[in-house]
Amino acid sequence: MKKNFFAIFLFFLVYAGLQNNADAQTAKRKVVPPNIVIILMDDMGYGDIGAYGGIDYTTPKIDKLVASGMRFTNFYSPQPICTASRVGLLTGCYPNRIGLVDALPPNSPIGISDNEMTIAQMLKKRGYATGMVGKWHLGDAEKFLPLQHGFDEYFGIPYSNDMWPVDYEDKPITNPKNRRSKWPPLPLIDGNKTVRTIEKLEDQRTITTEYTERAVRFIDRHKKQPFFMYLAHTMVHVPIAVSDKFKGKSKQGLFGDVMMEIDWSVGEVVNAIHKNGLEKNTLIIFTSDNGPWLTFGNHAGSAGGLREGKMTTYDGGQKEPSIFSWPGVIPAGTISNKLACGIDILPTIAAITGATLPINKIDGVNILPLLRGDQNANPRDRLYYYFDENSLEAVRDGTWKLVLPHKSASNENEIPGKDGRPGKIHTDSTGLALYDLRRDPGERYNVLAQNPQIVKRLLLLVEEAREDLGDDLTGRPGKNRRPTGKL
């Protein structure tokens, strides 16, 4: 009996030791949630970096991200304008679904709703440190600022850098009939408080450097825990400015200088990740909020041969350079020609980190299979192009884009501005038009008459969108739109 008792005791002792060792090995193998870094440009066009055709300046640091990751050729911003695009990225929703559209001015009575979950709020629930640096543009009242929407830290400006009482000659605007004369100097905010004001263009020369240094310090301080860094550059939105270290460095003038400084900034962020040994556990996303503001000529970027630019739903306004780099997970040096959008970033990050998606309906889809190199994956087959308050102007399905009758601002056949001054634009109008973007990415050849069955199929998708989200152009309110935040 004693022998049996001793044998049983010995068995449990050995089993406990083996189990403890297994638990220890499991703990060692436990996957640490990846860090997430999103670098968002402002008004950078499809042709503005070296890997997408930029010329007369170099972007080696950004191009190195391309070499280490995946370059998308059919990635779209949620809308072709600042506020709408940014809220779409951070919430995974079509901006018009949640009521935040256009580009909010200073002292706006509306902003992002407390009922919408941002990427930062989603990741905080997973234990992430969350920091934002740069342009916010989702409401400048304190209740709308980043700290109230999931970010632990914020340093930047609350809206676009041209929303100040300064004219194109860098002189104060004194005409009371000009609404900009009533706007305050550009505030630089740390947390919830303005730490200084930017009152002339010279004061904007250091802003890219300041953003970069702040982002790097955040990475250094949080290297031992998962973090989310959202770096939203003010540049290359006009007025553009550059520090002394890059002034006169490019053959393309000031715009090229600014792009070279942005490239330096990306390099500094990547260096901070490598210096802290985090490169194999950090996803970096680099993209832009909308296309170039073409009317500003040599101070604007390039749409890379696409039609039109910012503030239009032609592809020059929404098709963006987009790079995803995550060594060891995303195959290096790869290209994805599949359709994707900024609203897909939130659900993709949720899939990567195991975070819980928002309770409210979102419109983004998980593109992680594309990032892993699955050639057969096709998570997004359609995209709706909304603009203004709630106007449905086009729909894409596969390589087909159906443009709906609407009016829009146009730069076609206009002489662009120069050296910071805008050129002329006019109002253009279009009827129903069908473009095969595989053969005609510039949207020049209307093949509506040759493809009646494709038009019929796409009009069914249009009807689905109008039922769900509405359409001001046809007087449809939509069933599933939610209110924006209000003071």
Tell me what the structure shows.
The chain is of the alpha/beta class and 487 residues long. The chain folds into 2 domains: 35-381, Alkaline Phosphatase, subunit A, CATH 3.40.720; 384-486, Arylsulfatase, C-terminal domain (2-Layer Sandwich), CATH 3.30.1120.10. It is built from 10 helices and 20 strands. It has helices at residues 2-29, 60-68, 82-91, 119-124, 207-221, 254-275, 315-318, 345-353, 368-371, 452-468, and strands at 35-41, 70-72, 75-76, 110-111, 129-134, 153-156, 186-190, 193-198, 227-232, 282-288, 322-325, 334-336, 340-341, 382-387, 391-397, 400-403, 406-410, 426-430, 433-436, 485-486. Strand 15 and strand 16 form a beta hairpin. Helix 5 (207-221) packs parallel to helix 6. It is globular and about 55 Å long. The model is unreliable at 22-29 (pLDDT under 50).
The fraction of residues in strands falls at 15-25%
The CATH topology of the largest domain is: Alkaline Phosphatase, subunit A
Structural class: alpha/beta
Overall form: globular
In total, how many beta strands? 20
Unreliable spans: 22-29
At the first level of CATH, the class of the largest domain is Alpha Beta
Average pLDDT, rounded to a whole number, is 94
* CATH homologous superfamily identity of the largest domain: Alkaline Phosphatase, subunit A
CATH architecture of the largest domain: 3-Layer(aba) Sandwich
How many distinct helices?
Answer: 10
Topology as H/E string? HEHEEHEHEEEEHEHEHEEEHHEEEEEEHE
Q: Using the CA coordinates, give the radius of gyration.
A: 24 Å
For the terminal residues, how far apart are their CA atoms?
79 Å
